[in-house]
Each structure stands twice: as structure tokens, then as C-alpha cells.
């Protein structure tokens, strides 16, 4: 009744039912949003709370609220366990995800530029191959890739992970879409008329205009690499080469067999492994939103 | 003029060289391997040699009951989980589209929290949530009188489906929401003047407009489901009797290759699965395109 005053009286006069319905639909909309938000956030909340508890607290207290605060003890245990292997895994993860993403940006932007702004024989085929390979299940390539890499000595090395991370057809396609929009052909022509070489044009003009596109490719690639599990699991044997995902999986698989219960280590480690990813994502929010939307529209 | 075209192609060379190395070569290698097998000579283990096996590996693959049970399992699972997840993602996107922009941004952020969690961490987290010893879910259901064992063979698909939905819903929502933003706003005003309800506008105008996004997310989801591996592998550590070594096709391939050292057979299975994935995507694309008015 009170909200009726805010509505336009002339229109609602004849449609009291419709007016009621729109008010109800607004309440339902908000209720739906709140439910979805709770579903999305509550499990992460549980993980954060659990990372502050010791074994006793995990077993006997309310999972959704804090008990005795053991967060810093847990962190120390995580980093001290097994001679600080967790730190090695973290460094490895940063190296694979960050290094792979950087290489991927260079290779993909160059290829996207070629596909977008030049017409050479085989360009159409090249583009078709890129789009066609989206549909190829990546996991199927992993096993033969391992066999191939072990023949030439790349298996069980950082390169065995970094090279596949660098070559990503989706990122090439994304880069091409960005070049289409961000690098005007007239500008390139003008630079050529002025006598600039192709290499110089690429590094001084194209890469500069492509800052947003490059950042998007970097971010999506970083997230994909950080989350990858199957490739490093197949490729890397020694635990000093593992990234965090494999390390946590290993701790979890072992948690009941070892002398001490590893549950708190797994939970705290899992929480810690989210942080770098969350930092990168929050810092680059602007880019990944536009990137994902762009990919969907074309 | 001719020099230009050559230099331009040069920028694509690093990628395509890498592509040959990491996509084409492994594919060819898998094909090659799938036509061979290991035969141990009469003198014992030391004299194993590779022999041409023709289509033997494929015949074996086509008759492998465990492998096909896995394929059927993930396909059935896909038929239930993907429509549910995309339906929820679509609902999320439509709800977001129905409120003021500032409110939408706030909620969109919380919807994307699962997307920021590494897949394996998400799986670990839910495994603990499901755990009767540590997780709050079993206790909570107990208080309303439901005994639920999330790792029992009856509930494990629900557990896994919920996990996958939780992980991927936000990303799919983002794609659909992005497509929704492109719908011309005048259409809604016109419909409102004609007396259409918000629900009616959503179903009759917005949903048809995001068809393309739904087909895209649908195809990506089918391919992802066929490759299901990480989550069942983790569940296996808790429920090894329910989640067997051949629970999903990729698990069969992984265990054949690295547990039983049957690389050649695993390669043949990979080729078969690639064909299935291609076929499923093609069929889905054809079906959704034909249904278009």
C-alpha cells in the first residue's frame, strides 16, 4: 500500500493486478539473486572459516563460524611441512602460470595480428584450424603429448608444461578479434608509407594499441594454467616440480595414511592457493569481463 | 606487395610451429601408436618389441564394456547436468538483467566467486563439505531427518553434478549475461506498453536473443563433460568402490596408459573418444540449428 504512492497513478489505476504482480516480481527477483549469491559464496566462506581451525575445531565446531583462531599456526605448519615443499609448489605454480601466460600473449598476439591484418595464402585455412581445434578435447592430446615429449627429453621438465601452455588456439582467436577492433589498417599503411619496418610496426604500434587485448589474453591464460591439473599430473614425476594443484591432490590422497592427519594442511593450503589467483583476477577485473563477453559475441 | 604478404605470415609462424608440435604431432603420434602393440618375445621381458597390430586395438576398444559404460555414464550425466546448469545460469543472467545496473554489478561479483577458485580446490572443498565427518551438510540434513551419504552410488552423481554446476555456473552466466546486454532495450519498452509482464518479456524476447550464447555454452559443456577426470579422480580417493578406474572415459585412458602401461591401447581409445566428441558436438549443433524457427 505504501509503495503505491511512488507509482504513476494514471497508469496503475486500471491495472491493479498488473501493478501487484510487478511488485511481487521485484521481490522474487531479489530473493532469487540472494539465493544464488549464497550458493556461490557459502562454500568459500566455509573454507575460509575452516582454514582458521585446528583438527579439534574442524571436527566438533560449527563449520560456518569461527572457533579458536589457529590460522597463523596452520599457515606455519603448511609452510614447514616436508621441508617447505609447499613454497616450492607455490613458486612452480607462479612460474608455470605466469611464464606460460607471458609466452602465450606474445605468440597469440603476433598470430592474431597476422590473421587479422594480412592476407597471405593459407590464411583462411589457418583461421579454420584455430577455430576447429576449440572442439578438440584437450585431455586427449595430453597422453600422446607426454609420450612424444618423453622421447625428446621434455617430459618431467618445466618446458613440458610451459610449451603446451603457450600454444592456445582460443587465445589466438581472441587476439585476432581484438586486433580487428583495436588496430586500424590505415594507421599501419601510414607507418609503412613513412618507411617503418614490419617488426618495428608490430612492437611499437600494434603491441601498444593492443594493451587491453594482451591483458585479457594474459589473464585468461594465467587462470587456465593455474587451474590446470591433468597436464602437470601426466607430465611431471618429481614432487619438487609439481604445481600447487598436484601437491594439494597428493596431500589429500595421503591425508589418512601419514603419521599426522593432513586435513588441516589440505584445507589451509587450499585456501592459500586461492589467494594469488584472486589477487590477479581482482586487479584485472576490467579486462576479463570484457574478454569473456567479447568471446561470446563473435 | 609480395614482400608484405610474406612478412605478415611471419608473425603467425611461432604459433603454427608450436601448433604443429603440440597439436598435430601428438594427434598423428596417437594415430600411429594405435595401430601398433607390444609383443613380448619368447625370451622374457627384455625382448619386448613393437609390432603392427592393424585394427586390433580398435576392435578391442569397441568391445570394451567398461570403456563404453564410462562413455554412456558421462553422456547420461551430461543430459541431466548440462541443461540444469545452463537453466540456472540463464536464470541468474535474467535476474541480473531485471534489476538496476548497480545492484546487478554487486550480485554479479558474488556469482563469479566460484570462477575464481581453482577447479581442484573447488573439488577438494566440496569433498570436505560432503564428508560426513567434517562437512556441515550431512549434519544439517540429519536434523531435518534425512540420512544422506553423498558418496553412495545413488547420490554420487548428484554430488558430482552439484560440484560441476557450482564451478561452471558463473562462467556460463557471464557469457549469457554478455549476450543479454546486446538485446536492444527499445524492444522491452514496446512490449511493456503492450502490457507484457516481465516474465513474459524474459521468456519471449530475451531468451530467443541469447540462443547463440546458449548453443556455445552447451557445446563447450558437452566437450568438458566428455573429458571429466579431475573430480571423479578426487572422489575416488574417498569412495574407491563406487568410482572405479573406468568410471569416465578419460579415467580409463589414464589408467590404461599409466597404470597398466598399455600406451597403444590408450592411444586407440583416445582416437575413439575424439571421434565421439566430434560427433556429439556436431549432432548438438545440427539439432539446435534445426529447431530454430
UniProtKB/TrEMBL annotation, chain A:
Gene Ontology CC terms, in alphabetical order? plasma membrane
* PROSITE patterns attached to this UniProt entry: ABC_TM1
Q: Where is the ABC transmembrane type-1 domain?
A: 90-283
- One example of a Gene Ontology biological process annotation: transmembrane transport
Supply the alphabetized keyword list.
Answer: Cell membrane, Membrane, Transmembrane, Transmembrane helix, Transport
Check the record and name the InterPro entries matching this protein: MetI-like (IPR000515), MetI-like_sf (IPR035906)
Entry protein name: Carbohydrate ABC transporter permease
PANTHER family to which the protein is assigned, alphabetical: ABC TRANSPORTER PERMEASE PROTEIN MG189-RELATED, ABC TRANSPORTER PERMEASE PROTEIN MG189-RELATED-RELATED
Protein location: Cell membrane
Q: The organism sits in which domain of life?
A: Bacteria
Q: How does it sit in the membrane?
A: Multi-pass membrane protein
- Which family, according to the similarity comment? Belongs to the binding-protein-dependent transport system permease family.
Q: Does the keyword ATP-binding apply?
A: no
Q: What is the lineage of its organism?
A: Bacteria, Bacillati, Actinomycetota, Actinomycetes, Kitasatosporales
Q: Which residues cross the membrane?
A: 27-48, 94-115, 127-149, 161-179, 262-284
